[in-house]
Structures are given as C-alpha cells and as structure tokens.
C-alpha cells in the first residue's frame, strides 16, 4: 500500500528544487499545469524533461495573486510537499510509480501547479516520489486549503488497487450510523472525479468531450485565430464570456445548450491562458510537416464516437506540441523506443495516428 507523508513549506521554492535535484539525484520529473520543455520520450515510453526552473514559475504565480503574504497574522504556507512512497513488497518500477503518482496528483490537485521529482536514495533503492504542490488554485486564485489527509490516503489506496498494487480498504462511513455516505451526494461534491471515471469506463461526458477537443486545438494551432478555426473544424464553437473577463465559453455546435466556460474546464482553458500559451516565445511549436499531419487527424476528431479515443488523441497531440517534434521521423523514433520495450500493439486513432496504451507516445503511420 502506498504511504503519503505531508510536509508544509513556508518559503520560496528555490531551495526545495535545489534539494530535490542536487547532484543528479532526480531519476525523472513530471509536471502538472506547468509547461516544462520536453527532451523527448524515454525508453519506457514516458516523457523526459529538460532542466527547468519550475520553482520560479510557482513563486511568480503566488506573488501575482498575493498568496505570499501572511494570513491572519501567520506566515504564509507557500506550498505542500508530499512524499509518496510505494509498498516495498510491490517491487514497483519507476514507470509504474510515475503512472500511479500522476494519477493521484491529477485527482487531488488538478487545479494547482505540481512538480514531481523521483528518487531512489533510500536503503533498499526503492523509487519514491516527492510531490510539490503550489499553494494557489489556478481556477479561483485562492490559497490551497489543507486537504483532508485521510481523503488523500484513501485516494492513494484506490489508485493503487486500480494499478493492481497492494492497498488497504478505508471507506468513509457516517460516524453515527456506520453507513457509507450516499453515492449521489459524493458525486455532487466530486464532479471532476466522476467525469474522469465515466471516461475510464467508456461512458460519455460532454464536458470531457469539449476539453479533449480544446486540447487538440491548443496542440496544433499557430495563433489564437487558428485555434478558434481548429475548434470550428472539430464541431466546437467558442465566444468571449460576457460575465468573466478574459474567459471563453465553449459549446458543442450540434447541441449549443451544452456549453462551459474555460475556467470550469480548468485554468489553462481560459481565453487569457490559451492566448498567452499560443503567443509564448517559450512554446516549442511543431514544425510545418507535423502540423499538417496532426491537423489531418484533428479534422477527423468530430467523427470520434468513443470519448476515450478522443482523450487519447488529445494526449497524443499534447506530446507532439510539448515535445517540439520537428519531423515525422522524430516522432517515429520516439514511438519505436516505446514499442521496443515490449508494449503490445497500440490502438489506432482517427487519421492513422497510433498511441501506446501505457504512455503518451505517438506515431504517424505513413500511407
């Protein structure tokens, strides 16, 4: 069973990053809501990242929103640091740990900037993860409230079970009746988790549908105008929000009543954030050959009937965009490294694109 140990931080994050990455001790790094540059795809099919000053990004986010200042006379808690340790009896590999850890981070801190650094510097060289969560909610701008430690641990145990690892049962029960709370009430409080589980089971979620199509458009667009055009090609209308400055409203063309603001999809889906991302000099936009081929895939996204396939497509395009692949051969090379590790034949996506079920590796099949 995984063990989760929380630690509170009250300073800038530079010292924490230096400690976690000093002397080359970091085995790998993963990021959530931080556009860290990729160096490519590793032999295990997972992303490798270049050296990146993620601590300064987190510090800047807090400072801009005033979340570095003392709160009610107390020194600000600037971040939470969780040590995520697997059960030694599971003999977990680094790639398995990365998958489990990122599933846990997305579920519990989906609206926060998260950096994960992996070590094996303990007595028995067992890989474990250091999960650093910035104190600012990107959707609301508010400070991170201390999550229920027991809820975080329950989440870790359930995800471990889903990955066929050892776990223990710890279901919440009513203190008076001993009965597990009504699942409908749980669903209302945890809508983002319910949506994710629907997608995992192959059920349809129109919010997840829109989010996936927006992800594809972000990955292939050359400009904010091109982004909106790509969305129209995939059956999504977009307009400025009348009530939220700097935000967009997305809707499905066939059913305009199904509409959602960018901030509801996540902080990185607002007009301000998308436009800033597309115009950012740090963005490694894919080369013209890659853009043309990926756009052919995107144009067929409207024909996708299974939401899981559309989500897989959006993840694939994200890797192309963030990885900065300049040619099809570079993409093929990354994919071959994944398949050479013994992965089974990956499912085919619309437009001839292929994705490994165990990673975000993508490949274009020439016809």
UniProtKB/TrEMBL annotation:
<protein>
    <submittedName>
        <fullName>Relaxase/Mobilisation nuclease domain-containing protein</fullName>
    </submittedName>
</protein>
<dbReference type="InterPro" id="IPR005094">
    <property type="entry name" value="Endonuclease_MobA/VirD2"/>
</dbReference>
<feature type="compositionally biased region" description="Polar residues">
    <location>
        <begin position="335"/>
        <end position="344"/>
    </location>
</feature>
<feature type="compositionally biased region" description="Low complexity">
    <location>
        <begin position="350"/>
        <end position="367"/>
    </location>
</feature>
<feature type="domain" description="MobA/VirD2-like nuclease">
    <location>
        <begin position="68"/>
        <end position="165"/>
    </location>
</feature>
<dbReference type="Pfam" id="PF03432">
    <property type="entry name" value="Relaxase"/>
</dbReference>
<feature type="region of interest" description="Disordered">
    <location>
        <begin position="330"/>
        <end position="367"/>
    </location>
</feature>
């Amino acid at each position: 069973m995984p063990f989760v140990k929380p630690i509170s931080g009250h300073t800038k994050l530079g010292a924490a990053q230096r400690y976690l990455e000093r002397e080359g001790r970091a085995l790998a790094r993963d990021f959530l809501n931080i556009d860290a540059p990729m160096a490519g795809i590793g032999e295990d099919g997972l992303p490798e990242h270049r050296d990146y000053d993620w601590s300064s990004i987190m510090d800047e986010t807090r400072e801009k929103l005033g979340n570095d200042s003392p709160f009610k006379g107390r020194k600000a808690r600037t971040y939470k640091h969780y040590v995520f340790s697997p059960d030694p009896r599971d003999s977990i590999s680094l790639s398995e740990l990365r998958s489990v850890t990122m599933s846990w981070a997305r579920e519990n801190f989906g609206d926060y900037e998260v950096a994960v650094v992996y070590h094996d510097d303990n007595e028995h060289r067992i890989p474990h993860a250091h999960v650093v969560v910035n104190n600012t909610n990107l959707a609301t701008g508010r400070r991170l409230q201390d999550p229920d430690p027991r809820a975080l641990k329950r989440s870790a145990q359930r995800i471990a079970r889903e990955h066929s690892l050892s776990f223990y049962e710890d279901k919440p029960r009513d203190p008076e009746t001993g009965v597990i709370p009504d699942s409908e009430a749980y669903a209302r409080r945890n809508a983002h988790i319910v949506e994710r589980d629907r997608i995992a089971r192959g059920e349809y979620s129109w919010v997840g549908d829109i989010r996936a199509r927006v992800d594809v458009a972000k990955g292939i667009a050359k400009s904010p105008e091109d982004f909106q055009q790509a969305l129209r090609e995939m059956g999504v209308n977009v307009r400025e929000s009348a009530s939220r400055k700097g935000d967009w409203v997305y809707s499905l063309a066939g059913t305009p009543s199904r509409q959602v603001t960018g901030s509801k999809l996540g902080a990185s889906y607002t007009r301000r954030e998308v436009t800033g991302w597309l115009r950012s000099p740090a963005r490694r936009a894919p080369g013209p050959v890659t853009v043309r081929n990926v756009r052919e895939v995107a144009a067929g996204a409207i024909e996708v009937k299974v939401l899981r396939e559309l989500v897989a497509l959006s993840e694939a395009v994200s890797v192309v965009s963030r990885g900065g692949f300049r040619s099809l051969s570079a993409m093929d090379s990354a994919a071959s490294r994944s398949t050479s590790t013994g992965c089974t034949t990956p499912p085919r996506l619309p437009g001839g694109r292929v994705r490994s079920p165990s990673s975000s590796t993508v490949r274009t099949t020439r016809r």
